[in-house]
């Protein structure tokens, strides 16, 4: 039996740290082959460091490459690829409709990831899938978790690439066909968010700008969560990896303090729902291992 191989597809630098830091570090430590694909440089992220506010989008993108490298060092991750090469796809950015929902901005760069040719973008990933041969691939659900256009696109590209990579008739020049056995979609750990919310609301009255949130809106119904990779032993890695992205994350602001509380509760961890392929075994949910029940050849 060979070591597990995991491939994660994230939209921007910092998504790997906020959603998958413990997963990445835990599997790296266990001897798994872990590969991160980042689809954009995150050039349109909000700049939170006052001294960096003058950065152009291109300058921010270059800076975020360094932030990502620092986060990877925290997690022990060594294999990272920008989809199509550095800067091939530009962060699309996001806007808010009057009802608060996330929408595509009225103006986007020519090479915005949202406008990527789906087949071309998927083929970049097909080549990576066929060379790394992951047993499990992790990305987002069809609405990108919260609706960011680049997260939706990451989902589309990843799901299409998984199908194409397995087909012997598709682009043989991109490598030998490879069937990813299981696709998982990372998600909020609903039960932990629900438990942490009253604690955080009490401590941080400014959480969510002081607005009340419906705890049922924090994530999928608990029954849908198939796996929770425990954060135990990796909380410090998660905080350091997140803090490695200071342009985007103020680690001590109410939201990230709330996030930290969700990760300090008993049974806390990074949550996943089933995407496609080999289902998780029906008993013992949530599983703590993304590879449970798979044949690791
Ligand atoms: Zn993102």
UniProtKB/TrEMBL annotation:
An annotated Gene Ontology molecular function? metal ion binding
One of the protein's GO biological processes: mycothiol biosynthetic process
- Protein name (record): N-acetyl-1-D-myo-inositol-2-amino-2-deoxy-alpha-D-glucopyranoside deacetylase
Q: Does the keyword Metal-binding apply?
A: yes
Q: What is its EC number?
A: 3.5.1.103
Q: Which PANTHER family match?
A: N-ACETYLGLUCOSAMINYL-PHOSPHATIDYLINOSITOL DE-N-ACETYLASE, N-ACETYLGLUCOSAMINYL-PHOSPHATIDYLINOSITOL DE-N-ACETYLASE-RELATED
InterPro entries given in the database record = GlcNAc_PI_deacetylase-related, LmbE-like_dom_sf, Mycothiol_biosynthesis_MshB
Do you know which Gene3D superfamilies this protein is assigned to? LmbE-like
Q: Which domain of life is it from?
A: Bacteria
Keyword terms of this UniProt record: Hydrolase, Metal-binding, Zinc
Fetch the NCBIfam families from UniProt.
mycothiol_MshB
Q: Which Pfam families does the entry link to?
A: PIG-L (PF02585)
């Amino acid at each position: 039996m060979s070591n597990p191989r995991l491939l994660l597809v994230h939209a921007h630098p910092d998504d790997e740290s906020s959603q998958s830091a413990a997963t990445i570090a835990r599997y790296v430590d266990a001897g798994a082959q872990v590969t991160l694909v980042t689809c954009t440089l995150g050039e349109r992220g909000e700049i939170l460091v006052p001294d960096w506010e003058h950065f152009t989008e291109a300058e921010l993108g270059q800076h975020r490459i360094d932030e990502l490298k620092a986060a990877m060092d925290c997690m022990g991750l060594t294999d990272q690829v920008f989809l199509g090469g550095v800067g091939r796809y530009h962060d699309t950015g996001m806007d808010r409709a009057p009802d608060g929902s996330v929408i595509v901005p009225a103006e986007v760069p020519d090479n915005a990831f949202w406008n990527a040719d789906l087949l071309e973008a998927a083929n970049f990933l097909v080549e990576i899938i066929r060379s790394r041969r992951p047993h499990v691939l992790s990305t987002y659900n069809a609405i990108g978790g919260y609706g960011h256009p680049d997260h939706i696109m990451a989902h589309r590209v990843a799901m299409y690439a998984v199908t194409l990579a397995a087909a012997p008739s598709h682009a043989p020049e991109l490598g030998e066909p490879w069937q990813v056995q299981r696709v998982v979609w990372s998600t909020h750990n609903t039960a932990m968010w629900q438990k942490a919310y009253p604690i955080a609301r009490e401590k941080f009255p400014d959480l969510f700008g002081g607005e009340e949130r419906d705890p049922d809106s924090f994530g999928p119904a608990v029954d849908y969560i198939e796996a929770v990779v425990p954060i135990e032993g990796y909380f410090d890695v998660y905080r350091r990896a997140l803090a490695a992205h200071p342009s985007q994350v103020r680690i001590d602001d109410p939201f990230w303090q709330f996030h930290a509380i969700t990760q300090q509760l008993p049974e806390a961890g990074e949550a996943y729902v089933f995407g496609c392929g080999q289902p998780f075994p029906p008993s013992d949910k949530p599983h703590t291992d993304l590879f449970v029940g798979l044949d690791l050849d």
